[in-house]
Design brief:
Layout: H1 10-22, H2 24-28, E1 35-37, E2 40-44, H3 53-64, E3 68-77, E4 82-89, E5 94-99, E6 102-107, H4 118-127, E7 133-136, H5 145-151, E8 156-161, H6 167-174, E9 183-187, E10 202-205, H7 215-221, E11 227-236, H8 241-254, E12 259-270, E13 275-285
Parallel strand pairs: 2-3, 7-8, 7-10, 8-9, 10-11
Antiparallel strand pairs: 1-2, 3-4, 5-6, 11-13, 12-13
């Protein structure tokens, strides 16, 4: 009985196809990694590979059966957090990802989707207590709002997003849950939209590289007697988590809180060389 031959990894099969159409030198420069987002595939290409987009895109289409292949051209850009990509093959960049049984629809060419945040998206829903008023100030397509709407029981969920490309998908992704809990969605800058300050039991500040600049806004929105604020930031990997927690607490106190207790912080994912994405869960009060 002969042993079954194992299939080679996708990147190896892509290289073999590209070698026939664009040459061995181009094929040898193709990296192994890729990020599948439903029917759209995101790849990274070395900057010195030019003029072979179509051959590379078609090879990935053939190997993985995706509809569209895009290549990342740089980091997520500005406050609107737009990805910088170019299309290698295909045309349709709207796609859907199912994660923990929840559906996220988005345009992969205009809005980001970080799979490295998967655990954090799942975790945040488990923290919300019944009857809380929850605000997601950087809602995107609903990264944190969708699991909260689907699996928690808040009195109200308020989701704010500034990016006009992401906002329609936020509304689509939250639509299945509007009959279950009260949901408000707002398009615009969370610093300027009226959100009935002083009423939120829990606020999510999910902006990177750091949402510390929104601490004053969070305090203005938080319930003065105490609220949970989940602050996302990046920091050097060599720093102790405790140092970052203390720094965040000091910034809350400097902004006017009388009590700021970073109960815990956790590493969400790596964030470039020597840095990591961290979320600090802080209980913050502005009166005794």
């Amino acid at each position: 009985m002969t042993a079954r031959r194992e299939r080679s990894p996708p990147a190896e099969r892509v290289r073999a196809i590209v070698a026939r159409s664009a040459g061995a030198a181009v094929a040898s420069r193709l990296p192994d990694g890729y990020h599948r987002m439903g029917r759209v595939l995101l790849v990274r290409l070395p900057g010195d590979i030019t003029g072979h987009d179509r051959e590379i895109g078609l090879a990935w289409q053939r190997v993985l059966g995706v509809e569209t292949v895009v290549a990342r051209e740089g980091p997520v850009d500005g406050e609107l957090r737009r990805p910088r990509v170019r299309v290698l093959a295909g045309t349709e960049t709207t796609t859907e990802v199912v994660e923990h049984g929840l559906r996220y629809r988005f345009d992969a060419a205009r809005t980001m989707f970080a799979t490295g945040n998967r655990t954090e998206r799942h975790r945040i829903a488990g923290l919300v207590r019944p009857g809380e008023v929850v605000g997601d100030l950087f809602a995107g397509i609903g990264y944190f709002s969708v699991p909260i709407a689907a699996r928690a029981d808040p009195a109200r969920l308020v989701a704010v997003e500034k990016n006009p490309d992401a906002f329609p998908f936020l509304e689509q992704n939250l639509a299945p849950y509007r009959d279950r809990i009260p949901i408000e969605t707002h398009l615009g800058d969370n610093r300027r939209i009226s959100l009935s300050g002083g009423r939120f039991d829990r606020l999510i500040l999910g902006y990177l590289p750091t949402s510390e600049g929104w601490i004053p806004r969070a305090l203005a929105l938080a319930r003065p007697s105490g609220a949970w604020i989940h602050l996302h930031r990046t920091e050097e990997t060599r720093r102790a988590l405790y140092d970052g927690e203390r720094e965040v607490a000091e910034r809350f106190l400097a902004a006017g809180a009388i009590r700021a207790e970073p109960v815990r912080s956790r590493i969400v994912k790596p964030y470039g060389p020597g840095r990591r994405h961290v979320v600090v869960d802080a209980w913050v009060a502005q009166r005794s």
